[in-house]
Structure formats: structure tokens, C-alpha cells
Amino acid sequence: MIPFFVLMAVFAVCRALGWIGATYFSEWQHCLRFALAAMFLLTSSAHWGAKRADLIRMVPSAFPRPDIWVTLTGIAEIAGAIGLLFPPTFKAASIGLLLLLIAVFPANVHAARQHLSIGGHKVPGIAVRALLQVIFIGAVIAAGWF
Predict the structure, then answer these.
(1) 128-138: average pLDDT
(2) Would you say residue 94 has pLDDT above 90?
(3) What does the alpha-carbon distance between residue 35 and residue 30 come to, in Å, rounded to a whole number?
(4) What are the residue ranges of helices labelled H in the chain?
(5) How many CB atoms lie within 10 A of CB 77?
(6) Burial class (CB in 10 A: 0-12, 13-18, 19+), 70
(7) What pairing do the DSSP bridges indicate for beta strands 121-122 and 117-118?
(8) Phi, psi dihedrals of residue 87, rounded to the nearest 5°
């Protein structure tokens, strides 16, 4: 849930900055890209920190070397976040992040079914996680195509 709150808060702050004259943030798409970048940088930080072991446990057993998958998805989140911030790359970054969100959803389902936790906090149930995933997917599509 924290990534969702970060996305919403950063978007709201950026929009407020746009309303008071910060030119870059005068368009909602710029704010959305910036907010998504903040969210993905936040989520990527867990891939190397104290929550790494929790993320490794989330990877379904069908995938060998879950530690490598966690590292690769963290790198992809960082690359996507940076890519969203630059006009020549934001569309490609949006596509990449869309594919990443689809690819990691099985890990979220696995975590919900196994009642796992991240950083001591129980992961959301499948219905909540699916709703969040739809919101995140919608946001990366909107950030890249509108």
C-alpha cells in the first residue's frame, strides 16, 4: 500500500506546484511520470535492503534463482523510473514498466496465497493487490501514451 500512497502524494504535490506556477508540473502527464518514478525508485530500494529476503520469498518456486529475479526486477524498476523522466525515453519506459508489472503479478499472488510479509507487514490480499496492479498499469499506460 505504501507505493500507492507515494504515487498519490507525489502526484498531488506536483499538481499543486503546477498550480502555483512551476512550469514543468503544469501538465498532469509530467506529474504522473514524476510520481511513478518516485514510486518505482521507492519499490526498487527494497530489492537490496532489509526487505530483500522477503522479496526473494515472494518469487514462485517455478522460477530458479529467485535472488537473481529480485535483482533484475529492481534494476528494471530503476531503469524504468529514470526513463519516465526524459521525453525521448518515457514511452519505452512506460512499455517496459507495463511488462514488468504484468511479469511480477504472479509473485504478488504467490505472496498473498502464502500469507507472506514484507518488512513485517502482511502483503495485501489478492483482490487488493489486483486492484493496485490495475491502478499501476493504468498509470504507466497514461504516462506513456497521453
Answers:
(1) 96
(2) yes
(3) 9
(4) 2-19, 28-45, 52-58, 66-84, 90-113, 126-145
(5) 25
(6) buried
(7) antiparallel
(8) -50, -40
